[in-house]
Amino acid sequence: MASKATIVLNENIGRRLLNVRETARYLGLEIDTVYKKARLRELPCVKVGRALRFDIRALERLVEQNAIETID
User: How many domains does the chain fold into?
Assistant: First the structure.
């Protein structure tokens, strides 16, 4: 549920890009894992100068595309 709060907060202040720490928290991953997945191009990211930023909308799509359907 904390992830949803992060999304709402970011939309309210007009932020579309998350830093590595925010992305790790949103996805429930370790910071090192986010760096590794970005390096392996498993997570979509943008370089802003030397910093990595992650588009919240792209992360949402990634989560939706990788969701496993439940069996009824």
Answer: 1
The pLDDT tens digits of the residues spanning 23-62 come to 999 999 999 999 999 999 999 999 999 999 999 999 999 9
- pTM for the model: 0.74
Asked if 30 contacts 15 with a C-beta cutoff of 8 angstroms, the reply is: no
* CATH number, domain containing residue 28: 1.10.10
Cβ-count burial 17-54 (b if 16+ within 10 Å, e if not): bbbbebbbbbbeeeeeebbebbeeeebebeeeeeebbb
Domain membership of residue 60 as a residue range: 2-65
